[in-house]
Amino acid sequence: MTPLLKMFTLGHKFIPPSIHAGGLRYHGMSPMVSHALKPGLIKAEAYHQTKVFEAATLFARSEGIVPAPESSHVIAAVVAEASKAREEGQKRVLVFNLSGHGLLDLSSFKSYLHGKMQDV
Predict the structure, then answer these.
(1) Is the pTM of this model over 0.90?
(2) Is the dihedral of CA 24, 25, 28, 31 positive or negative?
């Protein structure tokens, strides 16, 4: 049994490659996020995992916190928005939620830092 709620998804047969960044193997968005996307309240962005780990490494070096790969996706988005604001000469306040540490994902960071991580 499953709740019959509208969700954006890649389909129940979608299986991401095993090298995809930690934890992000779920194929859909929550019903609440899906609903916010539909009327345009939010927008969805996709980033390659090397960009995600680049942003995560920058964050770790700047803030002293190794973020989880899941949280690193939003860090990549914030870095992109901050760069865009700088290029446009605008000042913006960017707020995001850091929801986990990457201490269990150090092997992924090692793969990135040694140039072994690939975008798929």
Answers:
(1) no
(2) negative
